[in-house]
Design goal:
Structural class: alpha+beta
CATH architecture: 3-Layer(aba) Sandwich
Number of helices: 5
Helix content: 40-55%
Oligomer: single chain
Strand content: 25-35%
CATH topology: Chemotaxis protein chec
Order of helices and strands: HEEEHHHEHEE
Number of domains: 1
CATH class: Alpha Beta
Shape: globular
Distance between the termini: 10 Å
Length: 156
């Protein structure tokens, strides 16, 4: 129902062109600094999954994918402001995550929307993000950039 940890690790390593270590995590906190939240829908527009990327992982992966020095990610975390370019880069990673999510669920999924830390997230999406079951919570350590959390949650 959810992509394997290997699939998640391989997706990040492949997109970022860096070594990535994956370890057990806990649900990504929706508090401050706010994460980015991605919603995924099927072909009839039903919400099927949600990904929650910690602010730190969004900044780090957004910088790493564009070969931006890690100082940009560190500055974003210090200021608690995710620059548009890092948000767009992290959103693209969320977009690519739709394929292994759909494969694991046996259906075609597409990224419906990615919510920036400053955006209001619909209650239905937040409800899925907070559910206890059908979820994978991991920490991804990006070589040269640092670690951050990712929660992938399927609608039950």
């Amino acid at each position: 129902m959810l992509p394997s940890r290997k699939d998640i690790k391989d997706l990040f390593a492949g997109l970022l062109g860096r070594d990535v270590e994956l370890t057990d995590g806990k649900p990504v906190d929706i508090g401050i600094p706010k994460p980015i939240v991605a919603s995924y829908v099927d072909d009839v527009h039903n919400l099927r999954a949600v990904a929650v990327m910690s602010f730190g992982l969004a900044a780090r992966s957004g910088a790493a994918i564009a070969l931006i020095p890690k100082g940009a990610a560190e500055a974003a975390e210090e200021d608690r402001v995710l620059p548009v370019n890092l948000f767009e880069n992290a959103s693209e990673i969320c977009n690519v995550l739709a394929a292994p999510l759909g494969d694991a669920m046996g259906t075609h999924l597409r990224l419906s929307e990615t919510f920036a830390p400053s955006d209001s997230v619909p209650p239905q999406v937040l409800s899925v993000a907070a559910q206890a079951g059908a979820r994978e919570d991991v920490v991804l350590e990006i070589s040269g950039y640092g670690a951050g959390g990712l929660s992938v949650v399927a609608v039950v």
